[in-house]
Amino acid sequence: MNHKNKTVVRSMDLLNLFKDHAQLTFQEIIDLSGIPKTSVYRMLMSLEEMEFLEKGPDSKYRLGIIFLKFGHLVSSRLDIRKISFPIMQELHDDIGEAINLIIKQGDEAIYIEKIDTNQKVRLYTGIGRRSPLYAGACARVILSFLPDSEIQTYMESVELRPFAKGTITDKEDLYKTISEAKENGYTISYSELEDHTAAIAAPIFDHKGDVIAGLSIAGIEANYQNENIPIFAEKIKAAAEKISKCLGYIPS
């Protein structure tokens, strides 16, 4: 390793200290890094000049504002479909049921990815299909994890219309399913968008902790009974969490 590369690596070592510490003094950086004092001083000066670090009036160092700019660029360039697809494929290969990915658009949900190659009975859902946020597990799981104020606003304005025999058309019942979803980490639906179908869905969160998508396992109603429910629920929650982590989400 030449001198230039060594300096770069050491500078990154200093920056990595701030993953676990919001702020550090000059001496704390020396102690934690194990790098000689004079070298730390030179690197801190350079990192501060380039806005990777900033030194406050309390003489403590913190990550600089440039990381906010980089963070925005990274989050805006992440393609949720590209990230989700291999995880969806793995889940589909495991259980043989359709796997759907949806995002919120206004007061609706839109299906943006679906894998159902191995499913014997194909479902109604397809990429580009829209559904209201209250109908179907995959859409409702997004509604369930929105901020309470947004849920309240939505509930006050929405008209609950039936699509199939199991569509929720009573607002008290809808509030109940939302509450259950928050408690359980998933939601389930039976014959809400099409008769004799069922789905179990979990939320996907971004790096800010906001719900941005829903992931569901879906199939014929007969397969979503008894012991299959907790099995499917744990699998969809694990897959959704894996996608969320890829998007920068850190579970609390």
TrEMBL record:
| InterPro entries to which the protein is assigned, alphabetical | GAF-like_dom_sf (IPR029016), HTH_MetabolicPath_Reg (IPR050707), Tscrpt_reg_IclR_C (IPR014757), Tscrpt_reg_IclR_N (IPR005471), WH-like_DNA-bd_sf (IPR036388), WH_DNA-bd_sf (IPR036390)
Give residue ranges for domain IclR-ED: 66-249
Q: Keywords in UniProt for this one?
A: DNA-binding, Transcription, Transcription regulation
Query: What sections of the sequence does the record tag as coiled-coil?
Result: none
Q: Where are the transmembrane segments?
A: none
User: Gene3D superfamilies under this entry?
Assistant: 3.30.450.40, Winged helix-like DNA-binding domain superfamily/Winged helix DNA-binding domain
Biological processes annotated in GO: negative regulation of DNA-templated transcription
Q: Which domain of life is it from?
A: Bacteria
Q: Where in this chain does the record put each HTH iclR-type domain?
A: 5-65
**Keyword hit for Cell membrane:** no
**What is a single Pfam family found in this protein's UniProt entry?**
IclR_C
Tagged with keyword Acyltransferase = no
Q: Name one GO molecular function term.
A: DNA binding
Name this polypeptide is given: IclR family transcriptional regulator
* Species for this entry: Neobacillus bataviensis
